[in-house]
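User: Show me a protein chain along with its predicted structure.
Assistant: Here is one chain, sequence first, then structure tokens.
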Amino acid sequence: MSNAINLFEPYPMGTMVLANRFVMNPMTRCRADATGTPQDPMAEYYGQRATAGLIVTEGIAPSANGKGYARMPGLWSDAQVQAWKPVAEAVHAKGGKVFAQLMHAGRVSHPANMAAGTTIVAPSAVALGGQMYTDAMGMQDYPVPQEMTEADIAQAKAEFVQAAKNAIAAGFDGVELHGANGYLLEQFLSPTTNQRTDAWGGSVDNRIKFVVDVARETAAAIGGDKVGIRLSPYGTNSGMVAYPEVEETYFKLLAQLADAGLVYVHIADHSAMGAPVVPTPFKQALRKAWPRTFFIGGSLDLASGQQAVNEGLTDLVGIGRAFLANPDLVQRLQKGLALNAPDMGTFFTPGAKGYTDYALAAA
């Protein structure tokens, strides 16, 4: 394996250099306050994990309408911008890079998790089956979202752009557009959730238009070298299902995202956690179709990540729960040390327990 690429060496991504090829995947942690403002432990949490080459934060709502989960953070107010600054500073103090993941939940929300005067919007008035947790009322059925008007669509695009500008003002190195896992951007891509008959729905070209517009306008605002996107073809999160033209959709989408100048594409593959397998030939074809940094997150460890990089399937190795439970994951992997197990019971609970209190390996 003498020709193996060293995952622990720096990697140039666009105009920046990552310290290594390991990415801390975005993971929902629900530690903001009820207004979506980050709280003190969040800077410690991200700072502890800043030896990752790149950290992608948990999903951050670009607007009050986009806030889905209880205690989900936002990036639409000045107070939120100010509260994110210590997070970016904590990562940079250790030489890390951090992108803010901008996640508009769309229909994956409930009024009890949102501020007064907000509206749950989606491409079409199709409710998600099942229930969502709320702090105020426990588990609640998902409501029917309001079908977006032309004005709503224009507003949502503007909210992504403003949130991206806010992220840069807060000190983030860039943003990741969350186009995966059944949230608003993917809701436009899928014919299951996008049943429109106007210019935003119907054909593949129409269904990708909203995502392309958001990407182009965000890249124009802050620079394409500061914008990535996460996608989850074949994913089933939040009511998504596969559809006949899924591969055509993503090939067409990638071509336009490449033209928009985005610095990376991040494919979510959660097959190791029971999600449908993303076919390897499809991932290989996406890799070939993308001219810049391409990486996969969700089902990789050190061995499978090394193999995927060696084979040219991915440039970076995205890891989630192992980073959650091991602040010093990069060092543990480099030295072959045992890993802490994640405590699933504290993934989404408030406070430091199961958040900033995981042990470091003995020196």
